[in-house]
Amino acid sequence: MASKWGPDFAIRGSLNLTRRGHSILFSSRPVYFQSCPARAFTSSSRLRNVSNAATSRSEIPLGLFLWKRIRQLGVKSVMGLPGDMNLELLHYMKDANLNWVGNSNELNAAYAADGYSRIGGCTGVLLTTMAVGELSAINGIAGSYAENVKIVHVIAATGRKAQESKAVMHHTLGSSPNHRIYEKMSAPVRVAHCYLDDEKTAATEIDRVIHECHIHSRPVYIYVPVDMVHKPISTSSFDEPLLISRPESIEEARIKNSATEEVLSAIYSSKKPILLVDSHVLQFGAKSLVRDLAEKLQFPVFCPFMGKSIIEESKKYFYGTYNGKFSYPGVQEAVEDKSDLVIHLGPLPTDMNTGGFTAKVDPRKLISVEETRVIVRGKVFEGVYLKSFITALLSSLNTNKLPGPEPLTLPTPPTPTDLDTTQITQSYLWPRLGRFFRDGDIVFADGGTTHFGLQDATFPDITYVMQNHWASIGYATPAAFGGALAKRNELVEDEAGKTRGKGRVVLITGEGAIQLSVQEVGSMVKEGLPVIIIIINNGGYSIERCVIHPDAGYHDIATWDHNHMLEFFGVPDGVKRTHQVHTKDELETALELPEMKNPKGIQVLEIFTDKMDFPWRLKAFGRAYRDMKGQ
Amino acid sequence: MASKWGPDFAIRGSLNLTRRGHSILFSSRPVYFQSCPARAFTSSSRLRNVSNAATSRSEIPLGLFLWKRIRQLGVKSVMGLPGDMNLELLHYMKDANLNWVGNSNELNAAYAADGYSRIGGCTGVLLTTMAVGELSAINGIAGSYAENVKIVHVIAATGRKAQESKAVMHHTLGSSPNHRIYEKMSAPVRVAHCYLDDEKTAATEIDRVIHECHIHSRPVYIYVPVDMVHKPISTSSFDEPLLISRPESIEEARIKNSATEEVLSAIYSSKKPILLVDSHVLQFGAKSLVRDLAEKLQFPVFCPFMGKSIIEESKKYFYGTYNGKFSYPGVQEAVEDKSDLVIHLGPLPTDMNTGGFTAKVDPRKLISVEETRVIVRGKVFEGVYLKSFITALLSSLNTNKLPGPEPLTLPTPPTPTDLDTTQITQSYLWPRLGRFFRDGDIVFADGGTTHFGLQDATFPDITYVMQNHWASIGYATPAAFGGALAKRNELVEDEAGKTRGKGRVVLITGEGAIQLSVQEVGSMVKEGLPVIIIIINNGGYSIERCVIHPDAGYHDIATWDHNHMLEFFGVPDGVKRTHQVHTKDELETALELPEMKNPKGIQVLEIFTDKMDFPWRLKAFGRAYRDMKGQ
């Protein structure tokens, strides 16, 4: 069918046009795409099509147009569920060279799209049906909004006539239903939306919301009335590249320069500077830039809770986690008291990320590099954007003027008292898992004890995903599925054999958290993805047990037999692929198995721990949380 | 702990007070409670507490107050998931003699509360945490809104100070988060809500939203800031009963009388009347009233698609399903052409319920008895309520004046051509399942082929639950769990040994539909509920395969091995409790097994059918749907 609609389009290699008053930042190595998908568009095989694309003036159906535009973002897999209203839209996906995934439910699909975006570096895309589908997904989309993950949610709606006549279709509410009411429900968890009601404006509208998605790094919604799917749309806008970077005005450039000068001046005159590398560095795609900066500065680096893994932990200037008063001894003093300058990159001042709001740096010595502004010792530079600013800082930095601070001397962390047991304790478990990880691994951690426990692991150079701000339990299983899919998509094209392509995908979850979204294990099996699933079985919802009334029955959950999980999801030798360990010796043996080191297919490792044994950070947080609830 | 807060309260046996200008309809046999829970309040053991309750003037914590008030509605089990913000609220549940269920995820919990309400006849109650919990549940709540099911959704929110300071807590959105934004998102799927911000108004607010829940038969939201949970609240409002019936003004009574006269006059003068018994009869609790009415009238009765099971199908005046042009031969003519009066009780004119809007009765011969009005041959009586009107009609009806119409003569339905195969065909399967059902059974059907296929089964006197208007695939598994729990709660108290207490709970779902919400099978296992799970395995999403492009890959789903499902969810002899059948002989053998006839515990029956074999009604609907999408 592809030939019917003309040759596939490919984005041109290099552009520097002006459109609607904006300079277009898309180039042969676009800033946004630097992490991975740009390869697809700069390879010679793709470039061969450029002249065709530039001169073709055909029309294609709206549905196909939408998917082709999405494919141009580097997206290869689309999450979602089929539904009667989206079937016709679905049908054009193949012709746009997109892979339809087909998840087990819509919330899982949204989580998977989020994981896909975080690992793939491109937009996560989700297709659902109106009402039942989009509302099932909404908590996942809200998480992407909270954590600045790029998602395009495509929703197939009823036809325009049915909408106008307020037909009482299935999936509608009440006797004279507004078919667009759901769009109002999702308003707080997106930055833009459009209804593709008009074939004349559809192309512009699609481009507009994709632009908004990328500059804010947050979800957008595209509603497609089912009767619009086959309408012919001109492909002429394919000649213009998608505007996916934020345009910078002359005034903004001036402010950025002022901010850069001010920051450099503060850096050069400091004697005991500290660098804090935080969560928004990841979300706004500045990880490698910040690594370069840290390497140049050689300042002592701490990562707040959610910044973990952004800086390579083997670096001699890396000193661990800074989490206010819930840090190891000496850390809070080193950051807050003994420094004369604190550069905080990408701060996300949530309760958990600040040790229950106990992390407090004196504003008079603080440089805060945020999503849309830089604050230097109380002086605010608005409209300065994180990634753009760090790029400018890097290029202006004169390493000869840097202070060269002394290495820090921190007290030795307290030695756990329970290291000699045969049982697997929290204090033993998490550092051990840190040693299990390898460079290039991708680790998804669900929001239970794992987030707290893994802070005590020293990581090799892994990609670590934790949804700790939105903190929706059950997120990690589908997200790991999405991440594993993005990784596989990438591997197929990774001819350079980079390290990052070689790691494993590891999901660490609890026997409670996995229950919320377990069916996406079935999707991993369906796709043949070699995910290592580590289930920490501590007999209930430990994270909540630790907050209040630890013995209460409501912390208990249904007891599943994970030995049969893979069998149920269709793996005939599932029991052989499942290991259950109760002691340290058993754990050591399991972690050394060849199938755990280099999995050829899915693997399950269930680790049993005592239900009253909590990571120390979780205990501290539980206490703080009780005080913090506004009482 | 109960003693600390004084004796348990019980609603007084009989009341006829006036409060806020409303007459209170609550009596020793309240209209609303007639289906079941009233028993709890009228038994002598409960009445012994009345004098205590009437005179006690103690204060109890707000959390306990809320649960006690909910317990007074006849609710015994509360669905939901624990979360850090709702733990303190959860802790008071036991003292109110409520059973905390603990579901596997929040969407499932919402579905389960819906099923609990439909079977228990009382309100379904759901407790979640703010944001992640409530948004995960929202599609289930929307379904309850669409289908007029009573739900109280209690949400534990952050404390008031955190809300006022816009603290960046986990579960919040953005840098200066409005903690109440989620309340705006759910506005279209509820009829009332309150924030329990003030201990002085909390009691009144709780009563107000419970009242709204009951008179509209739709969901309400109660938000509890976590710092309010322990605030002392006076129990004095316990002296006044909950206002859960709609008060009737003198003017409304007058209009109702006029409508009754007009309807009686039309009935007495008719010669070929038809009675249509439709979905809202169920939702507004008028099933037994309507059965009485049908018995008195002895008019030919048809049930639209969603009205199936309301009328006993063994009655000689019952003639089957009326679904516009997707009815058996002769049905549409009998209803629309050959009648001179059509009384349509509880209409719900959705696309599926009207054969794709092809069911059309001439308004000049139509009496439509709707939720809040009666229309007699085009004359509208506003403010006349379904249940109240049918009660009035029954008491005014003079059976001597009834026309006594001739029995209908309808063509014999077409004989399926594939009855002789050994394979299990759609034409064979559904009538056979109809014969498997017994009086008193409760059958939950998921929204795939089952809704269409079961229309061809003749039912004994069962309770049949299908969520066909909202049509959210995956609904039935958690709903069946909720229904089975309500049934068990009821059984404990059923000293009279009524038939309805003796039936089985049967879930019929597809191998596609069950994937969306499968973890609630684990909840059935945890609670030891003897549900019979029948999985129709037709190799994908057949309902969508039938709509468009039947061979497309996106109709396929992950292949699970249901033989291991129960084992995974913790049933050691799960494989023995699972039967998989491919032929009619195997099906016959399985349906006759003692464990299927009288299950002592959970059972699974997986029935394999051909993926291109669809129920005839689904095929017809698929065709109509393609035409109906507003194109």
Automatic annotation (TrEMBL), chains A, B:
Binds 1 Mg(2+) per subunit. Coiled coil: none annotated. It holds the Pfam family TPP_enzyme_C. Keywords: Decarboxylase, Lyase, Magnesium, Metal-binding, Pyruvate, Thiamine pyrophosphate. Residues 463-591 form the Thiamine pyrophosphate enzyme TPP-binding domain. One of its GO terms (biological process) is aromatic amino acid family catabolic process to alcohol via Ehrlich pathway. Mg(2+) binds at N538, G540. GO terms for cellular component: cytosol; nucleus. One of its GO terms (molecular function) is pyruvate decarboxylase activity. This is Pyruvate decarboxylase.
